[in-house]
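Sample 3 of the quickstart, ligand adenosine-5'-triphosphate:
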Amino acid sequence: MKVIGITSGKGGVGKTTVAVNLAVELAKSGKKVVLLDGDLGLSNAQILLNARVQYSYGHVLTGEKTLEDIMVESEFGVTLVPGSSGSSVLSRLSRLQLLGLIHALSSLNDYDFLVVDTAAGISDNVTVLFGACDLKLLLIQNEPSSIADAYATVKVLQQEFNLSDILLTPVQVSSQQEASNIHERINRVTEQFLDLSLRFSTGIRSDRAALESARVGVPAVINSPEGKLAQDITRLAQIVISQEPGEPADSGLKISIGNASN
Ligand SMILES: Nc1ncnc2c1ncn2[C@@H]1O[C@H](COP(=O)(O)OP(=O)(O)OP(=O)(O)O)[C@@H](O)[C@H]1O
Ligand SMILES: [Mg+2]
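Result:
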């Protein structure tokens, strides 16, 4: 199983939109996909997937339910592991509990991809989840605060987790040219100050279909398959599929745990 993490420094840039649509697009191409709503305090992947959710990871922690009990099949071919809206207990999970969650998920048989939608920011929860992923997509919007936050995120990821394999994904851009300009700009800064080159995945263009699909509860890749968002997500899915499978999720976890205790 390949584990794909999606994060951003700043909130509200489009993580859940990308995570949900990428998961559905991968499922459309015949892959078996689990989506983890890693925004464990305030989750909304379930809304975009129009999924009815009864339990969350909190019930697994208390022993009331097993992981399999709480997993929900959405109507779009993606299996959802729900977070829990507004539960502060969940957003304060310990590192070990989070790693346990990823570990349990990446040990599930029969799935090709685990897509992890994280919360924004560089809290422990986010860096632990993101650090455990094989492919790490860092979303960034073309505005000064988002670029500054993305740089701060990269710096923490590098210094705390020794992560260097970050795929920059500019979002809500007007063109692919704008996306590659953003990549060049931030890459210049990370190369100069962190001695770190960031890889580029693809730009995700602004598309009204994002809002519309959230309103009707049908992901854009299904609701508006010819639109800009769907086209760019299709390209992202191809990139994700063709990426060399990194270390198996298991050994990735061991590396993260080792670093976390330093
Ligand atoms: N490519 C896009 N084009 C236009 N609007 C978009 C795009 N991606 C996301 N949006 C809109 O931006 C808003 C935030 O999107 P989303 O919830 O996916 O962001 P997020 O990063 O997950 O936010 P949070 O940090 O709160 O979890 C939503 O209204 C969504 O419809
Ligand atoms: Mg979100």
